[in-house]
Design brief:
2 domains; two-stranded antiparallel ribbon; 8 helices; 2 strands
């Protein structure tokens, strides 16, 4: 996300581009086709992010060269790690689910929450013992369970 907001006119112009999935005043989401093209052109043809953006009709003067470079860096890095260009945010966005969780998913979440609460309780017990002066050195804290 950029610190520079886009104007309504810029948003309107960018939204007409087939390589842009979603755009508002502070956010641009690109299509998978564009991201594949961006990575391919930069890796195989040694083009700059600016060249690829401009060839695809996305004016780097509007979005900013820094934003274009950051997008290119992010997706090249992801491609080098996973070998694929896939936006994982829709499944991991932290947004509220619009569907009912399965019993297995509910159980997994409950188990994770229990584990977190158990760790929190241990931490609070250790903190209380430190405050009471029962524990004095780090080694006794790490060995305590």
């Amino acid at each position: 996300m950029s610190k520079t907001n886009l104007t309504a006119k810029q948003v309107k112009e960018l939204s007409k581009n087939p390589y842009i999935k979603l755009v508002n005043d502070h956010y641009i989401s690109y299509t998978e086709d564009f991201l594949k093209k961006l990575v391919y052109e930069m890796e195989e043809n040694n083009k700059t992010s600016r060249q690829v953006f401009n060839e695809c009709g996305i004016d780097t003067n509007i979005i900013g060269e820094h934003r274009a470079a950051c997008v290119a860096y992010k997706w090249r890095k992801r491609y080098s790690k996973t070998g694929d260009i896939k936006d994982t945010r829709p499944g991991n966005s932290g947004a509220t689910l619009k569907r009912e969780l399965s019993d297995k998913e509910k159980l997994e979440r409950a188990e994770a929450k229990i584990k977190l609460l158990e760790a929190e309780n241990e931490l609070l017990k250790k903190n209380e013992m430190i405050e009471l002066g029962l524990l004095k050195d780090i080694k006794s804290i790490s060995n305590l369970k």
